[in-house]
Design brief:
Rossmann fold; alpha/beta; binds S-adenosylmethionine; single chain; eight-stranded mixed sheet; three-stranded antiparallel sheet
Length: 433
Amino acid sequence: MFSPPLHRQRHQFVIDFVKRNKPKKVVDLGCSECSLLKKLKFHREVELLAGVDINGTKVRKKMHGLAPISTDYLQPSYDQLRIELYQGSVTQRDARLRGFDLVTSIELIEHLTLADVESFSEVVFGYMAPVAAIVSTPNSDFNPLLPGLAGFRHSDHKFEWTREEFRTWALKVCLEFGYEVEFTGVGQAPSGQQERVGFCTQIGVFRQLGGRDGCNMLLGDNAEDVFTYTLLYSINYPSLRDNNTLRRVLVCEVLYWAEKLKSGWMEEKTGKRNGTYTLCQTAGGGEGCLSERCMEMEENQTACGAEMRSLVEQCGKSVSEDQEEKDEEVFWPNFQRQENSCTLRRCVSVPLDVLWSCCPKVSALSGSLSNLRHLLMDDPEVKLSQDGAAVLINYQEQELEEEDYNDLEDSGFAEAIQHSFTAEQEEDWEANV
Ligand code: SAM
């Protein structure tokens, strides 16, 4: 009957609201199998996403679909997201759900007794006191248009309100707790009947009078802290605002680029050239020279050769092929020896300022050269030169085995994809139709 299906239209209504209003803290009451939460987690503005349902089994069934996937770890953004799922009843208070920007209650209240709706109103609007709330419920004025429907739309519904009944409840809530409400809905009636029957799902959009500073926000200090809900699941998404995540991503980037620079240089070193193999064409190689080289690299997109010439120019020396043959260790002035237990290891030294200037992601992540040095200094995966001005990369070429790539494959990814495609639940009559 409805295209897109009604449950999707309800969720889309919430998503559109989130896009327009950009709430940071959102809680979905009666979240069931978390299908709305899964859609909301992609909205960058949301920093805390919570879900509550009285039925813990339903929540547990799909909650792992909310976990970060491989790319969230491999390419974290600066956005922050924490997800918390609780088992608990909306008729009871829990201090962890106070002060949210948005509370959603989609097709929940009709599953409560009328006495529990009273408690719900007090808990949600009086205690949790969100800046905004979206409450949806079936509109019984529409029911005569639903084919094959006798009685309520779902066997667990305790009531189904007409538009007038919904309006009466909503206006009472507004008066009591300091909100204003706008009535709307999803699921259009056939043409000519909209006025008479309204939307299939009726929706009230509540906004706190005075916003965050409204009269209900006497929250916090003198309110007792009650914790009646059971935390079922919580996860922090990796974010570059977290120093450990930032360092991990930066180190990967630095090691990748340092290896790439080294490979480029080795290719040049082993390449056949006529006459003297000149590592440095330009004497000096100050900052100007370096940035010129970086520009060259950007234009040509031939990273290795240009990058290594940059490196070598920095050294300000030139060496001939003959010299290389006699003593491999002098072929590059920055070439260093490093004692490692009883073995003598040879390393290629890649200056940090070259990495910083030539690798856009390294500079974006670190912000400044001194930050870069600071972030790499204590990392066990990175070997810095004694003066801390260069990264030391083992001279031996290491092939990245296929298994290494395979290790990156994460079964969680496949699982998450699978989760995102599972059918969303519908009300009885919707499924039957
Ligand atoms: N909101 C979901 C959505 O949009 O997909 C569907 C909601 S489902 C029709 C109603 C949910 O409310 C069920 O998962 C049920 O367990 C939950 N529920 C019923 N009574 C509740 C209560 N007192 N507190 C919290 N959740 C409750």
